[in-house]
Design a protein that fits this description.
heterodimer, A: about 150 residues, alpha+beta, Jelly Rolls, six-stranded antiparallel sheet, three-stranded antiparallel sheet, 9 strands, about 40% strand, B: mainly alpha, about 0% strand
């Protein structure tokens, strides 16, 4: 009986620990994508078509990732970055193939989100730089979606 | 009055503070792309309608003349089905540009049949139905969204069973058909801005790399596409120079030939 109680105690302790760690363990790029899509939502009403495809991964504080993307002159693009981590600070900026900042001045960063607006001056490859500026977590999930009109 | 002024000042201060918090932090005006130490992710292949949208803004296009909804042959080789599937999804976007509801519905059925042929029919059924419903209602934005979802679901289903190479062939099929139509439109009414839409060298390199990693797909059409991309590369990889009408015509000849090869039995 004593042994049974011990097993029960250990099992429930483990369950409690798992429950407490649950957000960190089970959080995923999909959660980050949900935030990115949430940031994109208001823009759909303005006629932007949000792509189903997206990029995602995890980064440590201060780490950056570059994503290469073909953009077409004549279109207008928004890139939305999301993370599920509370109190993380993320950013997204867009550069042309010469490394020149190519975004409009109305990009923004707030809470779980960051966004960059591009009206390409030329058709070609652009670099979207995503960054986790600060985060309470060792690794921070991120997801980047984009829309165009 | 003083209290009111103070209140106004405070509100303005709070609003400005919020605006500053919400605005982007200052980004460097210039970075050295060549010294990017961070890993560069693969490109996301643009949807055909990203190109068509940009093309539309340059002047009216007679999309109806590019609509293609014939059923075509049935293939058994999965790489061929994947290429054809990408092409047919691109045809869906063309039919939407032409606002041709019967063609969109036929294409919806064809996409479903091809997806079944490749073993990913289950993930496509709801999208095919949504495409047909939206075409009935002439809700073109919804059709576009569902075509994107269709392609994404097909590719996700393929990736889940480690058929990433087939997934890449779907993208390639769509890109080839999109380029065929783009060059056809620009060839008829040439403009420098229209020709500039062909400036996609990194995307072409991406497809070349992917095809090189598919030696197991020993099919004539795959080899023809590989050779054709080598021909196309110097025509569109022109740096800051303009793409001349002759190059547009040449790319159109190449992509039309490949398009015919994709939909025709050997």
């Amino acid at each position: 009986m004593k042994r049974f109680a011990k097993v029960m105690f250990r099992t429930s302790s483990l369950l409690l620990v798992l429950l407490a760690l649950q957000p960190a363990i089970f959080a995923s790029v999909d959660d980050a994508q949900a935030f990115a899509l949430q940031a994109a939502e208001p823009y759909v009403k303005q006629g932007f078509q949000v792509r189903e495809d997206y990029w995602g991964g995890d980064l440590g504080s201060g780490e950056k990732k570059a994503v290469r993307q073909q953009l077409f002159k004549g279109n207008e693009y928004w890139f939305w970055l999301g993370t599920e981590v509370d109190k993380a600070k993320v950013s997204v900026h867009v550069y042309d193939s010469d490394g020149k900042l190519a975004e409009e001045s109305d990009g923004w960063e707030k809470g779980h989100f960051a966004a960059a607006h591009v009206i390409p001056k030329a058709t070609g490859s652009y670099f979207i730089i995503v960054s986790v500026e600060e985060s309470p977590e060792d690794r921070t999930h991120w997801a980047l979606v984009y829309g165009f009109r | 009055m003083i209290l009111f002024t103070r209140h106004v000042k405070l509100s303005v201060g709070v609003l400005c503070g919020f605006a500053l918090c919400a605005s982007a932090a200052q980004a460097p005006q210039h970075i050295n792309i060549k010294q990017l130490t961070t890993t560069v992710e693969d490109v996301v292949v643009p949807l055909p309608n990203e190109i068509f949208g940009a093309l539309n803004k340059l002047g009216s296009v007679n999309w109806k003349q590019h609509v293609r909804s014939d059923k075509g042959p049935n293939f058994t080789e999965r790489p061929r089905i994947a290429l054809l599937l990408g092409t047919v999804i691109a045809d869906g976007f063309i039919a939407v540009q032409a606002e041709d509801a019967p063609a969109v519905k036929d294409i919806g059925q064809r996409v479903l049949a091809l997806a079944k042929g490749i073993g990913v029919g289950n993930s496509i059924t709801p999208h095919a139905k949504a495409i047909i419903d939206a075409a009935d209602k002439r809700n073109w934005d919804n059709v576009r969204q569902e075509l994107d979802r269709t392609q994404n679901s097909v590719q996700q289903a393929m990736n889940e069973v480690h058929d990433e190479k087939l997934s890449q062939l779907v993208s390639l099929g769509g890109w080839l058909r999109g380029t065929e139509v783009l060059t056809s439109v620009v060839k008829e009414h040439f403009s420098n801005d229209g020709a500039e839409l062909l400036h996609q060298p990194d995307l072409l390199s991406y497809f070349q790399t992917r095809l090189q990693a598919m030696p197991e797909f020993n099919l004539l059409i795959i080899r023809e596409i590989q050779d054709a991309l080598v021909e196309v590369k110097p025509l569109i990889d022109v740096g800051d120079r303009r793409i001349p009408p002759e190059s547009v015509k040449k790319v159109n000849e190449i992509t039309t030939r490949l398009g015919h090869g994709i939909v025709t039995r050997d």
